[in-house]
Write a structure and sequence with these properties.
Blueprint (H helix, E strand, L loop, with lengths): L1 H9 L8 H16 L28 E12 L3 E6 L2 E6 L7 H9 L5 E10 L14 E12 L16 H6 L1 H4 L3 H24 L3 E2 L17 E3 L6 E3 L5 H9 L4 E9 L11 E10 L3 H15 L13 E3 H8 L12 E3 L10 H8 L6 E3 L4 H4 L2 H13 L6 H15 L12 E5 L4 E3 L7 E3 L26 E6 L2 E8 L4 H11 L8 H8 L5 E7 H9 L29 H4 L13 H5 L10
Parallel strand pairs: 3-5, 6-9, 11-14
Antiparallel strand pairs: 1-2, 1-4, 2-3, 4-5, 7-8, 9-10, 10-19, 12-13, 14-17, 15-16, 17-18, 18-19
Helix pairs in contact: 1-6, 6-8, 12-13, 14-15
The protein binds aspartic acid.
Keywords: Aminoacyl-tRNA synthetase, ATP-binding, Ligase, Nucleotide-binding, Protein biosynthesis
Organism: Acinonyx jubatus (Cheetah)
Protein name: Aspartate--tRNA ligase, mitochondrial isoform X3
Length: 601
């Protein structure tokens, strides 16, 4: 496991180095820079000559200086040094003349940081370690420096050592030393760099930062509120740069992108983060196909070279088809087991509950065919399916959930349905423009956001049957996860006003800046946002999006390392004209404000 993903980490990073070769490499890399394949110089500007993980037999005889953390020590003879690039064996000198070097290397606690200088030598015959990329060589040390010692750690820095996630998050800076976290964050950085390259260098996009202090906007997710020094006035953190990117189109910046931080105050939700990152894109004079081709090219270009290449164009499916065949708007198309309508088979049935279902308006009988189900599924599996169906009775999405649950059960019994190496992309299109409001089904709300343009063939229905209007929204789905979404926007101020005021009953004053901008020659435009955290999570196969974010929040939205959010003394709240009104049952909490902190478990 370790060597497998370590070699993945090294691919694309390893470089032949050493002081002399640096010079050669300097001019070589300048030339390579002309192509897009520049090899990074991993040891420029710093005390080391090489990284721990890069040394091979080709470096034999070279004088090197390495900096790293002490991973292991064996019998005061060998020391294994680690940096982000890998491990290397260092031979501790035993002769009297090197007593001070020996003392440093033998006495420094594990995970102390040391700098060693010496010669790359080959390991004695029979002592090579084929599991270690640097296993043919070792370093004969001449000098050593203890750069910093390490106190007793809350957990060992070894990937195989089990630790709770709460502990990992509390000591995130230590968790980041693990190879897995290093791999995830470095892969993320490489993919984002390729995306920038594709968008800016190959397609002329402009990287523009938009404000994160904004105001409340209608519709969409709940926003975080930021107090201001003006009594009763608040900023909000934007749930996305949606309005700004549209305004940039009005401003003539017709190809915008941003690696944008977004904020949504949605409470505790599994595998969601209150702050997350989007690759946010907007273009003028574009249609749906244009945006889709751009994104297909972007993913193809930035896809890691050690994965199967991305095949384009991605297939597409209408929202209606997705719901009918997969019971969800984000179908996992890596396997079949589609939902089929078998109402006709039962039209004349005498079976009571089926008759009952079919007699209702739009009542149907649907089934999922599980080939070999009888062979693989046990009685207790059928029981758990029955329970899931009962728990979600009357939700339409129940069939989609059953399909996925069946797949999980079959795979738990040994059948492989979803190839772990397969990345199955899908566009879902033709969503409804509006949905009935959950709390008041007589009223409408936007299925996505209120700036989404109606489908051109349904515009005439806006005034008569708005519920029937499809939108020009598109979602990108990967292996059953929504990884992006966007739309062609409304650029006509009148239409936007009508949708906001008449159909959605929103206060248009809140959006007067946008409506005015649309009136001043707004070009037709559209865009999309890719959820970067989720995308990287799927690419790396990480169990959670928290594993691809350097400093994520816990399930309850807390930073377990710094204990944010934290309380403020009343005098610090005064300039904001804010007073905390403590709920009646929170006396204990109030008095614990100055108590030592206990992490969530
Ligand atoms: N702003 C939208 C979102 O965050 C994406 C878009 O429509 O471009 O979901």
């Amino acid at each position: 496991m370790f060597s497998c993903w370590l070699s993945r980490l090294c691919r694309g990073l390893s470089t032949p180095t050493g002081r002399v070769t640096h010079l050669i490499q300097g001019s070589l890399s300048r030339r390579l820079m002309l192509s897009s394949q520049r090899i990074p110089e991993l040891s420029s500007f710093v005390a080391r000559t090489n990284t721990c993980g890069e040394l091979r037999s080709s470096h034999l005889g070279q004088e090197v200086t390495l900096c790293g953390w002490i991973q292991y020590r064996r019998q005061n003879i060998f020391l294994v040094l680690r940096d982000f690039h890998g491990l290397v064996q260092v031979v501790i000198p035993q002769d009297e003349s090197a007593a001070s070097v020996k003392k440093i290397l033998c006495e420094a606690p594990m995970e102390s940081v040391v700098q060693v200088s010496g010669t790359v030598i080959s390991r004695p015959p029979g002592q090579e370690n084929p599991k270690m990329p640097t296993g043919e060589i070792e370093i004969k040390v001449k000098s050593a420096q203890l750069l910093n010692t390490c106190k007793k750690l809350p957990f060992e820095i070894k990937d195989f050592v089990k630790k709770t996630e709460a502990l990992r998050l509390q000591y995130r800076y230590l968790d980041l030393r693990s190879f897995q976290m290093q791999y995830n964050l470095r892969l993320r950085s490489r993919m984002v760099m390729k995306m920038r390259e594709y968008l800016c260098n190959l397609h002329g996009f402009v990287d523009i930062e938009t404000p994160t202090l904004f105001k409340r906007t209608p519709g969409g997710a709940k926003e975080f509120v930021i107090p201001s020094r003006e009594p009763g006035k608040f900023y909000c953190l934007p749930q996305s740069p949606q309005q700004f990117k549209q305004l940039l189109m009005v401003g003539g910046l017709d190809r915008y992108f941003q690696v944008a931080r977004c904020y949504r105050d949605e409470g505790s939700r599994p595998d969601r983060q209150p702050e997350f990152t989007q690759i946010d894109i907007e273009m003028s004079f574009v249609d749906q196909i244009g945006i889709r081709s751009l994104i297909e090219g972007l993913l193809q270009y930035s896809w890691p070279s050690d994965k199967d290449p991305v095949v384009v164009p991605f297939p597409s499916m209408t929202f209606a088809e997705a719901l009918a065949s997969y019971g969800t708007d984000k179908p996992d198309t890596r396997f079949g087991m589609k939902i089929v309508d078998i109402s006709d088979v039962f039209r004349n049935t005498k079976v009571g509950f089926l008759q009952d279902a079919l007699s209702k308006p739009q009542g149907t009988v649907k089934a999922i065919c599980i080939s070999e189900g009888a062979k693989y599924l046990k009685r207790k599996d059928i029981e758990s399916l029955r329970k899931l169906a009962a728990d979600h009775f009357n939700q339409c999405s129940v069939l989609g959930k059953l399909r996925l649950e069946c797949a999980d059960l079959l795979e738990a019994r040994g059948l492989v349905l979803r190839d772990p190496a397969l990345f199955s992309f899908l566009w879902v299109v033709d969503f409804p423009l509006f949905l009935p409001k959950e709390e008041n089904p007589g009223e409408l709300e936007s299925a996505h956001h209120p700036f989404t343009a109606p489908h051109p063939s349904d515009i005439h229905l806006l005034h008569t049957e708005p519920k029937q209007v499809r939108s020009q929204h598109y979602d990108l789905v990967l292996n059953g996860n929504e990884i992006g979404g966007g739309s062609i926007r409304i650029h006509d101020a009148e239409l936007q006003r009508y949708i906001l005021a008449t159909l959605l009953k929103e206060d248009v004053k809140l959006l007067s800046h946008l409506l005015q901008a649309l009136d001043f020659g707004a070009p037709p435009h559209g865009g999309i946002a890719l959820g970067l955290d989720r995308l990287i999570c799927l690419v790396t196969g990480a169990p959670s999006i928290r594993d691809v974010i350097a400093f994520p929040k816990s399930f309850r939205g807390h930073d377990l390392m710094s204990n944010a959010p934290d309380s403020l003394p009343p005098e610090e709240l005064k300039p904001y004209h804010i007073q905390v009104s403590w709920p009646a049952d929170s006396e204990a909490e109030k008095s614990s404000l100055n108590q030592p902190y206990h992490p969530e478990s």
